[in-house]
Design goal:
single chain; 29% strand; 19% helix; 4 domains; six-stranded mixed beta sheet; Molybdopterin biosynthesis moea protein, domain 2; alpha/beta; Molybdenum Cofactor Biosythetic Enzyme, Chain A; 394 residues; Molybdopterin biosynthesis moeA protein, domain 3
Length: 394
């Protein structure tokens, strides 16, 4: 397969992301339904948390001045009552309101009960074991900034402030367009006839789109027809991103890159990615278009290399770093200089066993693997025993 140009992966990704503008569509959601969503506005605290002085311990609310000089040889006796005045203390549990005249809480284990009195052998300073008003959150404080990705712990903070609804960015809609006269739609209960394959790419792409925070719009299979491909792309320019599967090579019927160029701008066609060299990237009517190879393994690598970051930028979703594990190779991994190579490995503790380094159409090798070892274009593979970072396929 020959390409007039082969663009560096890093440069291709930079060019692609530079064309993508974050969406402006928003929606109001119940806070309890917004985990994993991205705030479209900053949130200010409508009240203090706590909104009262609260005890941080089980014990007794006291006036610290009453315990001045207390020691094992000079214990202080206080009477236990329901209020705190000179010479008295009040029992409190963790989270209870501390009486107004008390300025400290003495831990239960630091006292000895004697009838309705307690014996104290240590001093406490003002504020000891007392949570002041606004200690956790102060009214009008910025709790979360715009573009914050909401986590379960964040929802708990919102609930503590009485915030029941939040304004978030709408999920980016990604159109998935499969191409090829050899494809058959799912479900496929029967064995396809020779020369035909099931459209598993659309399913794979759609599941990753949903996992990464988007909404998948599945399109019907389009044969290798330039006008039909143009029509389906134009029909989906109302989305936030388009992923076309297949039709990206340099054969007579690989029309997709040329159609993208006609409709807008073709940024690159042919990248230094293995597998995934036939990948094309472009934009039409401000909609980013990822044209990935039809071979499943190559397509998935292209999706990981370009699609994830593009989808997240389109949806204003923070681009979270990949989860990696440091491991030792149990065997040699080969790669081509000038190409960023995604080598599949199986993890056994801190040992990475190479599974397969070739076969762009063999998706099962990815399903059997735990992750990729991404080999830079200036490195000719890794020797057995090398320490490598494994990017997990989650």
């Amino acid at each position: 397969m020959l390409f007039r140009e082969r663009t560096d992966v890093g440069k291709a990704k930079e060019m692609f992301l530079a064309e993508i503008k974050g969406m402006e569509k928003t929606e109001l959601l119940p806070a309890t339904s917004s985990i994993g969503r991205v705030l479209s506005t900053s949130i200010l605290a409508p009240r203090n948390v706590p909104h009262y002085r609260r005890s941080a311990m089980d014990g007794f609310a006291v006036r610290s001045v009453d315990l001045m000089g207390a020691s094992p040889t000079n214990p202080v006796m206080l009477q236990v009552t329901d209020e705190v005045i000179e010479g008295t203390c009040a029992p409190v549990n963790t989270g209870d309101c501390v009486p107004d005249d008390a300025d400290a809480v003495l831990m239960m284990e630091d006292t000895i009960s004697i009838g309705d009195m307690i014996e104290i052998r240590a001093q406490v300073h003002p504020g000891k074991n007392v949570g002041e008003i606004g200690e956790d959150v102060r009214k009008n404080e910025i709790i979360f900034n715009k573009s914050h990705l909401l986590r379960p712990c964040d929802i708990a903070v919102l609930a503590s402030l009485g915030i029941n609804n939040v304004k978030v960015y709408a999920k980016p809609i990604v159109a998935i367009i499969p191409t090829g006269k050899d494809l058959l739609p799912l479900p496929g209960d029967d064995v396809p006839p020779p020369g035909k394959t099931l459209d598993i790419n659309s399913l794979m792409i759609g599941e990753y789109v949903k996992k990464w925070g988007g909404i998948a719009r599945y399109c019907d299979i389009v044969p290798e027809d330039k006008q039909l491909i143009e029509d389906i792309i134009k029909a989906n320019l109302d989305t936030d991103m388009i992923v076309v599967s297949g039709g990206t090579s340099v054969g007579d019927k690989d029309y997709v890159p040329a159609v993208v160029e006609k409709l807008g701008k073709k940024l690159v066609h042919g990248v230094g990615l293995s597998p995934g060299k036939p990948t094309a990237l472009g934009v039409a009517d401000n909609v980013p278009i990822l044209c990935m190879p039809g071979y499943p393994a190559a397509g998935l690598v292209a999706l990981f290399a370009f699609g994830k970051s593009a989808l997240r930028k389109a949806g204003n979703i923070p681009d979270i770093p990949e989860t990696t594990i440091r491991a030792t190779l149990s065997g040699k991994i080969m790669s081509r200089e000038g190409y960023v190579s995604y080598a599949r490995v199986i993890l056994d503790g801190d040992i990475a066993r190479p599974l397969m380094t070739a076969g762009a159409g063999i998706l099962s090798s990815i399903a059997k693997s735990d992750g990729f070892v991404i080999i830079p274009e200036n490195v000719e593979g890794y020797e057995e025993g090398s320490k490598v970072d494994v990017v997990l396929i989650e």
